[in-house]
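Ticket closed. Logging final result for DNA-(apurinic or apyrimidinic site) lyase.
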Amino acid sequence: MAALKAPQIAKKEGFWDHFNRVFRGHSEPHGAFESTNGSGGPRCSAREEGGPLGIATLCMPYDWCVTPRSKNCTAKIAAPRSRVGKAEASLCLRIGQSFCFEKVAEGIWEGLVGRRVFQIKEAPDSTLFRCVHDGEEALDDSKGPGAFDRQEAALRKFFRLDVPFAKMVQKEYSLQRQLKAFLVPWWRLRHRWGLPRGTGLRVLGIDPVECLFCFICSANNNIPRITLMVRRLRERFGLPLAKATPSRPSGDFLGNPHLTWHAFPSVASLAAASVEDLTQLGLGYRARLVNGSAIRLMELGGPSFLDRLRCQQQETQGPPYEGLRKAREALLEFPGVGRKVAECVALYGLGFSAAWPIDTHLMQHSMEDKDFHSFLVSSSEIHKTPEATAVLKHFRRNQLSPLLHDAIQQFNQRKYGPFAGWAQALLFIGAIRKSKVQQKARGSFGKPKKEPEPHVA
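Final structure:
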């Protein structure tokens, strides 16, 4: 299906009609999104229960219902009456955001959120989850429904289901700007590079300490190897949580852990570890960086220092995104934290949704973006400053200098607004899939080439 051009869309149908047709495959009255439940809050969706598992619908905070559940139940992660879509594990958990989830069977992931072990399963029209271990003890009926509510809230926070993505777009942009700067690139990515309609991609909300040290391990690395390093760190320095049960048939989803899990190490344990011990875990030169960053973080007050950085996203004084700039500068003081790692920690760990991490995939995307190229040329001609000239020179040489990094980030923040990081996540997937399609096409003329895992840095 050929992508529609923005001017044709604006003439033939309203914005939200087009939004629903593109992202959800159907039309929905705009008024339904704004209706309330009679108490001043938005309307709550109808309960959806079925089968022996007591499946219930989990939506946005302004649009969800919860029913009591027993120990052997699952819950659906979806938002059927919102314009956000479900959290799709195959998109969220394997693109280098979190390294504490592993695929244990077809369509089933198991991993950590804090000290809880979750299983997440993709169904044809929904995503199911189950907490198989809560804290240090397995779930039991004595904890009552309140325990499930807390587990549910933790997973909602992890997938950041509190971000009303579509409503944010409607609020921040005019119709013309939405069509030109937001919908058109997303439309093309979804169809040209195989992203499914109504994708459940989310920008995850990860514990800041875990996020910092995982991305320090990501330097010049790929996702499977980073996941292995993080697993070894947990097993060596983390608190034991859950042991794997005896082997069961493939695809089992009966509420038992498939893997043995340890909590992510504390900052104090990483600071006390020797570089030799960390090197033996396969971290290589990153062992010194992990240990040095842990010592530095302890000197600054431990995890509370990262919490203070996270609070800076609420700053309203100064230039736009001033809180993000301050947080990035503070993170760059840690050993092993460069510009890209700092942006990742700001986006996933500290909640700065305007952060724009850049790797080789996103750099190539910028090289092919005619709008960005025109932006650089016009800026150098208008301002005629040494900085503008240097940025254009580095761009033409395909060199990611700090000035060019600033230019790419500022351009995309102006284009996509305060939630630019969400657009970056989808562009990143599109760039990876584009690269794989091109590699496959090149390999079809000769011996097929093995597709490498995407690099995180």
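The chain has three domains: 42-158, 208-349, 360-428. No further action required.
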